Amino acid sequence: MEEEEEARRKKRRKGVRKKTTSTSSSCFSSFDRAVFPLLLAAAVRGAQDPVACSLLRRFLRSQRLAIAVPPTSPSSNPLPGGFLSLLPLLLTSRCPAVAALSAEVVGAAALHSMEMNMAIASDYEVVKCLISALGSQSYRVAKAACNAIMDLSSSPNGRERLKDSLAIQSLLCLYCQVESVPAYFDVPQDMDKPYSENSKGYSRDKFLALILDAAMTLINTCNEDCSKRISPELLKKVLSLLCEIWHNIRGLTLPTNNNRLKSFLRSSEFNLAETIFRLSMNQIRPAPWDSTDVRMIIFGGKESDFENFILNYWENSPLVLQGMSKNSEKANTIFSSVIGSFNPKIADNIIDLILAGLVTCPPIASDELDINCFLHEVKDLLGSPIVHGQDVRVLRTSKLNPMCSQDTGEMEEHFFTNDPFTIPKCKKAFLDGYTIALRGMEFRSDEVAAIAEALADLFGQPSVGVNVYLSPPCSQGLACHYDDHCVFVWQILGRKHWTVSTHPTAVLPRLYGPLKNLGLKSDSVRSMQMLIKEGDILYIPRGYAHMAHTVYDEMESQGSVAADYSLHLTLAIEVELPFQ
């Protein structure tokens, strides 16, 4: 009996052992039980043990090949369980081949399936070590890490994790280092060979383009201002380098090393323009003058002069402020700086200055609160050449009238109706009596931008738009019209004769509201006739019909007639309804 009882107890113990073994086998795969400890030991020994490095390289190559097989289902996982926990050690290995192969495996896995991409992106240590690999002194490791970041950024989750892990800053810092130090990496090619696929210069330029593509992908998909996380010194240097590349792409500067770089960039020039815009849109430039200075050059040195304007003229009556922009040394300095930015000697020079190399400025409403919404709408427009009708108009009015009326036959003629806009054709149109009107000067000139911002602060308005008008002698550009915003006309060069109605429309037009036909008859409209000279400023409230034309200067003493062109700025103050 005792022997039978002992046999039953042994049988029960044996069954328990089998059950435990079975449970352990189901919880741990053969990789976890056999391969994982071996790889972990090899990773810890690292570059000190050639055998360990060889083992890691063979395993990583096999994983890279396994991942290359197309997934059988969206949820397929080619990586063995527990492998992700080894990646931080492998990515930071002192053996360059191991670190590079690890980054290549990460990149291949990120592209293999969305599930794998999310698994890698959710592992903070893997992402952090991948970014730290960018700082490796090994060209192969840094290049593999950069490629892996590009692959990981193919999903929204991957991009967000990379941004949170400061990948943008690391990429930009690496770009500046490689760009400024030609021998930053010991690229294994012959430096003496001509520029080709086997030269160091070729490999370096290709790598710089890869870094830029990765950085631009992350920057242009940000829903917040990523520039706040970048040091001011790095941001300034990066913007300078990006602008140089931009000018090379547009052919605005002599060819440099960056000129070769453009052939490797996968991102378009629109992506580059958006990156520059995003990095610079919140840059604060020290303004050369403030609202007090602008108040002084327009209204005079006393605060009471501005108060008098607000009480008696604002949205009530036109006003000529003669020579105010030259009434003091400070005012004269501001006026001279604006004149100097246009090179006033020859009209052709001014046309080249204000039009050459310009890009389109898509209109943005002053009450637009979400800049990302605006950037999404104009994604394929940023950086494109100026657009006729949107950025620039070349037009003339066929008849000069004392005051406009639909019955007088006055009509605007536009030079570019079917032909594409070009600067040579624009110069020809100018000689034929057409006025050149360019909008968005507050985005194109530092001097004008400072004045526009100061004027907006002075009037407590969200923005001030600035247009520039260049008119040939004895010509009229725009037909008689009224605006839905108040305008300050600042005569920069030459003179212009203005005719302004003394009465506004029955109802003052609202911003972006429809502008109805004037229907004014010259015999029933009282008007003000004014000759505006250099330095004069003319205020025209919204709703007041007006027109202007250049004039002949009769020089009686010499018995001759001198014709001058005119250049003036219009500073438009948008009078908004209160925010609700």
Automatic annotation (TrEMBL):
EC number: 1.14.11.-
Free-text remark on how the cofactor is bound: Binds 1 Fe(2+) ion per subunit.
One term of GO molecular function: histone H3K4 demethylase activity
Region (Disordered): 1-25
Superkingdom of origin: Eukaryota
Enzyme class: oxidoreductase
Subcellular compartments: Nucleus
One term under GO cellular component: nucleolus
Ranges where the JmjC domain occurs: 412-577
Cofactors: Fe(2+)
Compositional bias per record (Basic residues), positions renumbered to this chain: 9-20
Swiss-Prot/TrEMBL keywords: Dioxygenase, Iron, Metal-binding, Nucleus, Oxidoreductase, Transcription, Transcription regulation
Keyword presence, Oxidoreductase: yes
Any Pfam family matching the protein: JmjC_2
Primary localisation category: nucleus
InterPro entries: ARM-like, ARM-type_fold, JmjC_dom, NO66-like
Function statement: Oxygenase that can act as both a histone lysine demethylase and a ribosomal histidine hydroxylase.
Family: Belongs to the ROX family.
Protein name, as recorded: Bifunctional lysine-specific demethylase and histidyl-hydroxylase
Gene name per UniProt: LOC109706693
